[in-house]
Amino acid sequence: MRIPRHLAIIMDGNGRWAEQRQLPRIAGHHRGVETVQTVVKECRGLGITCLTLYAFSSENWGRPEEEVNALMGLLAEYLRSELATMMSRGIRLKVIGEANRLPAEARRILEETVASTRDNHDMILNLALSYGARNELVRAARHLANEALAGRLAPEDIDDAAVAGALDTAGLPDPDLLIRTSGEMRISNFLLWQLAYTELYFSEVLWPDFDERELRRALNEYGRRQRRFGLIGEQVRTDDCCPGEGHH
Ligand code: FPP
């Protein structure tokens, strides 16, 4: 099976899963965390080197306070319970987004987990928290403008690499595959720059029901796709090569 280096997932459908069972939405998020544990384990086993999960968007702050608090609590609980596994499986935690907006307790445990796992090298678990791609691009633009104002960067030196390096994902490869669950076919302000050449896969399954089988189904489909990066078939015989810029 051809394995993506970087897999990104929009975990969607927790609320609907709960509503279908007349349960509170948070029960869906609870089950969603179990799916996170399954998928992280499976990705690590498959040799995926970077897994990015959209755990909380900038827009999610607008949900009822009770749901926001419950999600923050689940995040803290998840990190606490997974540290031992991350250490034994060589998983390094990273965060993208405005993590400084998170409540103090969640922020503290996030920082601790990032610090504790920083020398792990087998897989990066990259959590998008308080993340929105336009916000990320705005922050990157401000950073580059400040660098230019300070005389450290000439405007004509701002190229693809400079922009990529100013994003929260600096240093990570672009995602090879994006999975979105629950049948919605939108990008929803996720990794807008980084998804330029990413293969997109939409699963009908709600996130709490997503499992190893569904993941393998997505990876099998990915294996059948030919990525051309704007070139023609004969030019891209080796898989996942990334020819230079400027293709469409
Ligand atoms: C989408 O379902 C899911 C979220 C907004 C949150 C995802 C969070 C988790 C799986 C748990 C916390 C994360 C970690 C990493 C521990 P939805 O509520 O938008 O579902 P709906 O569209 O059916 O309402």
Describe this structure in words.
This protein is an alpha/beta fold and 248 residues long. It is built from seven helices and six strands; from the N terminus they run E-H-H-E-H-E-H-E-H-H-E-E-H. Strands 3-4-2-1-5-6 form a six-stranded parallel sheet, sandwiched between helices. Strand 3 (91-96), helix 4 (104-116) and strand 4 (123-131) form a beta-alpha-beta unit. It binds farnesyl diphosphate (FPP).
What overall geometry do the principal axes of the alpha carbons give? globular
Major β-sheet strand ordering: 3-4-2-1-5-6
Order of helices and strands: EHHEHEHEHHEEH
Bound molecule types? farnesyl diphosphate
Which residues sit in consecutive blocks of at least 5 with pLDDT less than 50?
Answer: 241-248
User: How many individual helices?
Assistant: 7
The count of strands amounts to 6
Radius of gyration: 19 Å
Structural class: alpha/beta
Strand content: 5-15%
Mean pLDDT level: 95
Q: Give the N-to-C terminal Cα separation.
A: 27 Å
**In which range does the helix fraction lie?**
40-55%
Sheet with most strands: 6 strands, parallel
Quick take:
About 40% of the residues lie in helices and about 15% in strands. With about 250 residues, it is an alpha/beta fold. A six-stranded parallel sheet has the order 3-4-2-1-5-6, sandwiched between helices.
Architecture blueprint of SSEs:
Layout: E1 6-10, H1 14-20, H2 25-46, E2 50-57, H3 65-88, E3 91-96, H4 104-116, E4 123-131, H5 133-149, H6 160-166, E5 177-180, E6 199-202, H7 212-224
Parallel strand pairs: 1-2, 1-5, 2-4, 3-4, 5-6
Helix pairs in contact: 1-2, 2-3, 3-4
The site of farnesyl diphosphate (FPP) has 18 residues, from α1, α2, β2 and α3.
